[in-house]
Amino acid sequence: MNYKAWVAKAPKKPLVLESVDPGPLGPEEVEVAVEHCGLCHSDLSVLNNEWANSQYPAVLGHEVIGRVTAVGPGAKGLDVGQRVGIGWNSGSCMHCAQCLSGSHHLCGQVQSTIIGHRGGFSSHVRSHWAWAVALPEKLNSAEAGPLLCGGVTVFNPLNMYAKPSDRVGVVGIGGLGHMAVKFAAAYGCEVTAFTSSAGKFDEARNFGADHVVSSKDSEAVRKLSGSLDLLISTVNVKLDWDAMIGTLGPKGRLHIVGAVLEPIPVAAFALIMQQRCISGSPTGSPADIATMLDFASRKNVLPQTEHFPMSKINEAFARLESGKARYRIVLDADF
Questions:
Q1: Domain holding 25: CATH number?
Q2: By C-alpha distance, which of 44, 30, 219 is closest to 127?
Q3: Rounded CA gap, 51 and 40, in Å?
Q4: How far apart are CA 214 and CA 191, in angstroms?
Q5: The pTM is what?
Q6: Is there a single domain that holds both residue 273 and residue 173?
Q7: Are 230 and 252 in contact, with CB atoms under 8 Å apart?
Q8: Which residues contact 175 (CB under 8 A, 6 or more apart)?
Q9: Residue 177's domain spans which residues?
C-alpha cells in the first residue's frame, strides 16, 4: 500500500501531496496511521535547510499521534489498533552502551524521524517499535502531539535536575517555553518566566508562572541575582548571558534546549565562585517520553494549540514562520 504524503522537494519550497511507496515493513518496525501531527519549528528549520543536514525529498513531521496498523514479526509490546506517539527520533541501534543504559536518544546511530526517514505529514509513518510510545488513555490525543518533541525537551531537564521545592526560570514563552512553565508549575516549583514580549506577561501567568520578567530588561534580570536553582533557556537568540547566569544561586544550573547558533560567552568566575554549571540536552529516550506522557496525563498538562487540516499544511507553515502561532500548531490528518 502506498502512502499519501506532503513532500518537501527542495529548500524553502511549498510542500506537495504525493503518493509514496514505503517498501516492505521491517521486522522490528511498526506502521502507524497518522491522526494528528504537531508542526514544530524544527520542521521549518529542516524545510529551509537551516542546519545544513536536510535531505530532499523530505517528509517532515515528528510529533505524531496515531494508531498502529501493522507490526513486524520482531516488534514487541504493541498491538494493531493501539494509539501511540512518535517524536523526534524513530530508531536507534539498540545495542550500544547508550541504548543499553536507557539513553537511546544519545545513540551514535539514532535515526531522526524527518532526516533520512519519512515523517508524519503523511497518511502513515513507521518507526522501530521501541520509539512508538503508547499513549495514556486519559490523555487528549488531539492535543498531545507537541508533547512528543517540545514537551519532552523541556520536561527532561526538570525531571533530571529540579525538585518541587526549587525556583525555576524559563526563558522564552513560545512553543517550548509555555510547556516548560506548565510542567514546572505542575511539578510544584516556583516559576519565573522571562519573555521579550510584554504581550505575553499575562499568558505566562496563566500558564502557571509566579513571576514574569522582561528578558530585554537587563536591570530587572539582575535584580534576580542568585535566586534561581534552574534556568531553562528555550530561545534561539542572543541574550544578556552574564545577567542570566547571574540569576543562578549556588550550585545553580543554566540548561540550554533552544538551538541558539551563536556561541554563549561565559566568564569563568561566574561559574567557579558559585559552583554553577551550564548544560544542554536534546529530546529524550522512549522511557523519558513515556514518563513525561504519564505525568502530563496525571497533571493535565497539554500545550496550547491551533489546529489546521493537514491539507492546509503550507498555510500552517506560513503561520509558524510568521511567529504568530499560539503556541503550537497541530495538523489533523484529512487524506
A1: 3.90.180.10
A2: 30
A3: 15
A4: 14
A5: 0.96
A6: yes
A7: yes
A8: 40, 41, 146, 150, 303, 325, 327, 328
A9: 150-280
- Please give the chain's pLDDT, 335 residues, in tens: 899 999 999 999 999 999 999 999 999 999 999 999 999 999 999 999 999 999 999 999 999 999 999 999 999 999 999 999 999 999 999 999 999 999 999 999 999 999 999 999 999 999 999 999 999 999 999 999 999 999 999 999 999 999 999 999 999 999 999 999 999 999 999 999 999 999 999 999 999 999 999 999 999 999 999 999 999 999 999 999 999 999 999 999 999 999 888 999 999 999 999 999 999 999 999 999 999 999 999 999 999 999 999 999 999 999 999 999 999 999 999 99
Q: Is residue 154 located within the same domain as residue 224?
A: yes
In the numeric block, the cell 526549587 is attached to 166
d(CA 194, CA 199): 12
Structural domain tally of the chain?
2
Residues 6+ apart with CB under 8 A from 300: none
110 DSSP assignment = -
In a shared domain, residues 196 and 240: yes
Cell numbers standing for residue 151: 514537551
What's 8's DSSP letter?
A: B
**Same domain (yes/no): 7, 120:** yes
Angle between helices 286-299 and 150-161 (to 10 degrees): 90
Yes or no: say if 214 and 196 are a contact pair by the CB < 8 Å rule: yes
Element (H, E) at 20: strand 16-20
